[in-house]
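USER: My hope is that you can spare some time for a protein that puzzles me. I am handing you a single protein, as its sequence and its fold in token form. Walk me, if you will, through where the backbone shape changes along the chain. The protein I mean follows directly.
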Amino acid sequence: MARGEEDYTKMTIKRSPVEFLTWKSLVLFVTVGVGMTWLFKEQKKKIELRKEAEMNRGVGKPLIGGPFDLVDMNGNRYTSDNLKGKFSLIYFGFTHCPDICPDELDDMGEIIDGLKKKHHIEFQSLFITCDPVRDSPEVMKDYLADFHPEILGLTGTYDNIKKCCKAYRVYFSTPRDVKPGQDYLVDHSIFYYLMDPEGQFIDVLGRNYDVNGAIEKIKDDVRAYEPSEVRSKKKDGWFGFLYK
């Protein structure tokens, strides 16, 4: 039938557009749609986490974290500069803690294994004492031997520990002058502090997170992380409104 004839025109008009779709094109259409939806949700979630971290660091709020100068359980100097280059999870406690600290350190060990084995995320885990009078490097090392081998204990002078606790907004009640053998109680906050590879605060995880919840939250924060230089450029770019 010649293309210009009237019957040809009628046939092409009546023919349904679906006839021109193949199963391959339908599969491609659905796949692309699902992929774009997933990508949009993932990017939206990352932007929300970045905004949350930025708010935690935000202007007008007390900063969490800062310079410190301590000693690790192996007798080596450990400062806030050692936080740079990798993500860090920090917990404050003391070796004479009867129940809370052992439970939290057990949980920290599970978090370490969960992030490394399931999500292949490497980070350093620190246990900073709130009781420098009794927690020498030797005591810290002996105490932490019962927990995960990757948890590094930090201690120091009374003034340096107090300064560190103040920087992290950790409640500190340890007495300065204690007689040999004197017993006393130590109160402290119960939080994990997540720090980025620039040594900056990302988020705090309290007892509202169980182990699995903490693993997922840290995993999401790590994957959403961007260096400060990248964040600054994006804020000044075309889509800067998404980061405000």
Remarks:
- The first strand starts at residue 69 and ends at 72.
- The chain has a mean pLDDT of 82.
- The beta strands are 69-72, 77-79, 87-93, 123-129, 151-155, 192-195, 201-205.
- The two ends are 63 Å apart (CA to CA).
